[in-house]
Amino acid sequence: MIQAADIREWRNHDVIDPKGHKIGVLEAIYVDTTTDEPAMATVGVPLMAVFLLIVLVAVVLGLVGATVAGLSYLLVIGIVLLVADLALAAVRLSRRSRRRLLR
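Below the sequence we write its predicted structure tokens.
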């Protein structure tokens, strides 16, 4: 059994998948109060930040009164997601190139 004190020390450490790729950073551990066993964990994922940014942009545009007629809004959302994906790919590529330089 994992002790609760040990789990608290894991916060802010990298969470990796079985292949060794980083998923994100461990943010919090939630414990079942009836059994005192770990029940759930939250992991900070950079992709979630991009999603929240897109939602924020959509809300701001809605508050400003920007509207898109017809199905063009799907095109706008697609373009925003494409730009966000390209930005994330550029960040990942730069990180990989830095790792290769350090080796």
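Residues 4-44 form one domain.
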